[in-house]
Design brief:
The chain folds into three domains: 202 residues, no CATH class; 255 residues, no CATH class; 144 residues, Beta Barrel (Thrombin, subunit H), CATH 2.40.10. Helix content is 47%, strand content 14%. The chain has 27 helices and 19 strands. Strands 1, 2, 3, 4, 5, 6, 7, 8, 9 and 10 form a ten-stranded antiparallel sheet that branches. Helix 10 packs antiparallel against helix 11 and helix 10 packs antiparallel against helix 12. It is globular and about 70 Å long. The chain starts with 10 loop residues before the first helix and ends with a strand. Bound molecules: arginine. Arginine binds next to helix 9 and helix 11.
Length: 696
């Protein structure tokens, strides 16, 4: 139990008995069936990077506030600021369509390992192997797409030792139905992010639309709410410690096989650079966001994403160091190495660990460099935008008149949509600050040549250079770009200082020396063999594959963390509204609260949403095994009813993506009773609660 992110098609074979013992009352067919509607039909991937669940027969979808955040910010203006004030559609007509937002339903999956691996052999180079596999993958995707009705994706598992395909159906008309204000949905901000005890109402509500036949359709007034195959019933009954809990969702990435040397590289080279570059980006964004509400809305989502992983990576450095994770892995590897060097195993596995270790040693400085650059690219639009847009403009400038006529309007639209959400003074500061940092810290990994020479010529600081570049570049003004479209001269792009700088950065970012490519291929092969070998060496152990944005189930129970004196509740597996109120700091950016919520607390007006013990529950803990991407996933009880929405992990267990910690790893979820209380009592949107199927 608890550790493991399992495939739905394997639960019957691997886990169902175990789950029943812990309190599951559903059959495995009720969870995953190809022929009948089942629980899996209520689980969707949301907006590409999160999870959500269908909770009504009219296509209502629940996910996290931080998953809807980008769409909510996009729909907000300083006059109609839904991010700050919340939003509740009183009828379907009032629901709001963001520019692009989709949900993905999971149809079925299957094992294609034999088919794919029969096409390769050990004599092939890694490159040939990849080509052959990609060709076969393309065939499988083609065969199962039913002429474009489905999206099919084949993915590798156990580092290239197994392959499965997944069939999906996408719906692109998804509309915002409701969201609490930031002061509830993001209560606690970055201070509380990744922390327990927690008091965040991290949820938002959307609806999926389809054409009249229920098929996916692009946005249209005449679209109707989707009638889903299945929707989750919602429990108002609450739960107790040790009750069964499972989560279905789309965990993004884990690296549980990561070797010791890889962990050392991350702790000492990669993550410190990432953390530092993120912070520089955040500080320079924030400076401008705090002065202007419009800018704040435009950059809210980008800022939150950078801040989220800034704290995560620092937490990983701390947890991996504190728990000496690399030493634990090194011990496993040395045991494996003994097995690998036994006579029969030696030809295939004897050099695996050595190859892996050499690779990391050779790439430490490269990884530091690449992470400074990644931090820059995550924060600065102008590190990449002049390059990307400039290339499109060059194609335009070099095209025939007919070609120009064909491209012009789409380029206009592209420019308008890009520049609508840009604030140039912010971009200028972020880029200069990131370049200053990169040029001073990433030298040993080989700076982008132009950055290197500019840094030398300008005494190491880019502020003046970037200021002048913004003055003369056509990329610092939408008008100049539009003028370019009427009278395109390729030289104007080719000599543009921001285009030249950005091209240099992007070329460097993508560059791998031939020597390195060889090392990478050797490493990839060794890593695949390590996983193969470790599974052979421990034939009785049941392994689960690393997360890679495919649908998984994790099961366990509701359970406390070792007591935390900061918590308000008697037991440390949940928090209450009393604790929320105790954290309240009027006018504070992170800990302010709406007066209405305070009033509801004072009058104890919790309705049917209170716990039997009288308190208003807010967040709770399970020992389920999740990671980023699971955000928005349903927490489901033994009867298959929704009891919460997962939204975070805890900082003590930030090493979780490379090693699962039985003692410390927890999922933080928002209690569904708090979600419904906010909708009904706080927002006056009882009609939405009434749409759901409640188990009281
Ligand atoms: N840590 C959460 C996750 O990665 C995101 C939380 C968003 N909230 C916030 N205060 N930034 O899933």
């Amino acid at each position: 139990a608890d550790e493991g992110m399992w495939f739905l098609m394997h639960i019957d074979r691997l886990n169902h008995r175990d789950m029943q013992k812990m309190g599951l009352q559903l059959t495995s067919e009720e969870i995953y069936s190809i022929n009948h509607s089942s629980l899996k039909d209520a689980i969707v991937q949301f907006g590409g990077g999160c999870t959500a669940e269908i909770v009504s027969k009219d296509g209502l979808v629940l996910t996290n506030h931080h998953c809807g955040y980008g769409a909510i910010a996009e729909l907000s203006t300083p006059e109609h600021d839904y991010l700050t004030n919340g939003f509740w559609a009183r009828s379907k007509q009032e629901e709001l369509k963001p520019k692009s937002l989709s949900v993905r339903f999971f149809v079925r999956m299957d094992d294609v390992s034999k088919r794919i691996l029969s096409k390769v052999n050990d004599q092939m180079s890694e490159f040939e192997r990849e080509q052959v596999i990609n060709r076969e993958i393309a065939r499988i995707e083609q065969e199962n797409s039913e002429g474009g009705k489905y999206v099919v994706s084949v993915k590798s598992f156990y580092n290239g030792n197994e392959y499965y395909y997944f069939v999906y159906q996408d719906y692109n008309d998804v509309r915002l139905v409701g969201t609490p204000p930031n002061s509830i949905g993001k209560f606690g901000g970055d201070t509380d992010n990744w922390e327990w005890p927690r008091h965040t109402g991290d949820f938002s509500l959307f609806r999926v639309y389809a054409d009249r036949e229920g098929n996916p359709a692009e946005y249209d007034e005449n679209n109707v709410p989707l009638k889903p195959k299945y929707h989750l019933p919602v429990s108002l009954k609450g739960f107790q410690e040790n009750d069964f809990a499972m989560i279905l969702g789309y965990p993004g990435r884990t690296n549980r096989w990561m070797p010791a040397a890889g962990i050392d590289q991350n702790v000492n080279f990669a993550y410190p650079a990432w953390v530092e570059a993120s912070k520089v980006g955040m500080d320079n964004m924030k400076k401008h966001m705090d002065q202007n509400q419009q800018v704040k809305l435009e950059y809210a989502s980008k800022y939150a994403q950078v801040a989220n992983y800034w704290k995560n990576r620092q937490g990983m450095i701390d947890a991996l160091s504190k728990h000496q994770t690399a030493a634990t892995k090194r011990a496993e590897e040395s045991k494996f190495n003994q097995w690998a060097n036994k006579k029969d195993n030696k030809p295939r596995f004897g050099k695996v660990i050595e190859t892996i270790n050499r690779y990391y040693e050779l790439t430490n400085e490269k990884s530091r460099h690449d992470n400074y650059m990644m931090g820059m690219l995550r924060s600065s639009n102008f590190a990449s935008l002049p390059y990307v847009l400039g290339r499109a403009l060059l194609i335009y400038a070099d095209g025939t008149d007919a070609k120009k006529a064909e491209l012009k309007s789409s380029l206009k639209t592209e420019i308008a949509s890009q520049y609508e959400k840009l604030y140039l003074p912010l971009e200028q500061d972020v880029l200069a600050a990131e370049l200053n940092l990169y040029a001073s810290k990433a030298k040993a990994g080989g700076l982008a040549p132009r950055v290197d020479s500019l840094s030398r010529a300008n005494g190491g600081t880019f502020n003046n250079y970037i200021k002048q570049a913004f003055e003369s570049s056509i990329f610092s003004s939408e008008e100049k770009l539009l003028t370019f479209l009427t009278n395109p001269q390729a030289e104007q792009i080719e000599q543009d200082p921001l285009f030249l700088l950005s091209s240099d950065l992007m070329t460097r970012y993508r560059y791998t020396a031939e020597e390195q490519k060889k090392e990478e291929a050797n490493f990839q092969r060794a890593f695949r063999l390590m996983v193969e070998g470790m599974r052979k060496a421990n034939p009785k152990k049941i392994y689960y594959p690393d997360a890679n944005s495919t649908l998984r189930l994790t099961y366990g129970k509701i359970t406390a963390l070792p007591a935390d004196p900061r918590n308000d509740a008697k037991e440390n597996f949940y928090t209450t509204l009393k604790g929320t109120i105790a954290k309240y700091k009027p006018k504070d950016e992170e800990f302010d609260l709406p007066q209405r919520l305070i009033d509801l607390y004072k009058t104890k007006d919790f309705g049917r949403y209170a716990d039997r013990a009288g308190y208003m529950p807010v967040n709770f803990l399970t020992n389920n095994d999740i990671t980023g991407g699971n955000s928005g996933s349903p927490v489901i009880n033994g009867k298959g009813e929704l009891i919460g929405i997962a939204f975070d992990g805890n900082i003590e267990a930030m090493a979780g993506d490379v090693i699962f910690d039985q003692q410390l790893q927890r999922t933080i979820a928002v209690d569904i009773r708090y979600v419904l209380f906010i909708m009904d009592k706080f927002a006056g949107a009882k009609h939405l609660v009434d749409e759901m199927t409640l188990a009281e």
